[in-house]
User: Fold this.
Amino acid sequence: MNQARPPRTEPEALKQITEILMNDPEDLRGRLQREIILNALKCKRDELDVQSLKLLNRALSEFRYASKVFKPYRGTRKVSVFGSSRTLESDAYYQLAVAFGRLMASSGFMIITGAGEGIMRAGIEGAGREHSFGVNILLPANPANRFIQEDPKLVTFRYFFTRKLFFAMEAHAFALFPGGFGTMDELFEVITLLQTGKAPPMPIVLMELPGEKYWESLDQFIRNQLLARGYVSPEDTSFYTIAKSPEEGLRWIQGFYAAYHSSRQVGDSIVLRLERELTDEQITRLNESFMDLAGGRIARTPALPQELDEPELLTKPRIVFPYNRRSPGRLNQLIIALNTLAQSAAVAISPASEPAPAGSPVQPSAPAAAAPAASIG
Assistant:
């Protein structure tokens, strides 16, 4: 179906609705549009109260508009940046965030921040508004900062949950600077999404000044309390690393995409799309080191029929193996391992029984075109 302009009259609206309802059921986009309309009709059938209808309407409106804003930039990798809104311009962490944003932009990335003050302002100041998105929250004392005001890539949300969704859904990496409850909330929410497989694999860098232990103290708490008590698994510590400079943070993010591009679950298997072909020896090493995850069945594959709706990715090399979605931490370790193998065949791969270190050496590579926006949940 061709893209139609918004209806201006009731007959136009009815015509467009009829066209959507009559869409070919094999057309995924048309089928989803049809389900949205049918769900709207079910709101009437179920006699939902006014408060629920307001929330549904506003959330859908926010989601639609934000998706429209991000759509032209889906081919560019983005980093969501979090940190305290109370960080002053004179603070060393403010300057660290400015330098980080500048380095990411010069390396081909865009950044997403909450558009407020402190670290959010610093990230945009460094990257420049042309390389930045602001996902602001409607609060009495939370206007967008001067570096992103009036920019078409600024989106203001009424609800935290829709705002949080875009921080995760549009990102290909996360960078966190020291902050308060909100920063901790974002960190653990992102780790939980990765740990449960509700977000696709992507790197997290915790930015810390040399000689400070803001994130190192948290890492020790995670290892000495959560891990020691069995509340998390050893491989869950592979989701994040601590970086002491913008360059180190950039290396970790670029290193995550050195060989890995994106993933897609197809039935009971997972397909990893790659930037470069793996050798037979490298695949053998992955099978040996990740027998617990893939059962020795990692193999090359052409694009599967289910991937035909992503034509821009069809020519990329691929590996495929059975995956029951129960070990996202080990999947993350496998991705780190294949990136390492692609850069240095001499580096050993950590066995399943050993927790991955908080940081591992990686070499920078140029950022490739991003995968389409990932599904969260």
About this structure: The CA atoms of residues 74 and 271 lie 20 Å apart. The two ends are 27 Å apart (CA to CA). DSSP finds twelve helices and eleven strands in the chain. The domain at 73-256 is CATH 3.40.50.450 (Rossmann fold).
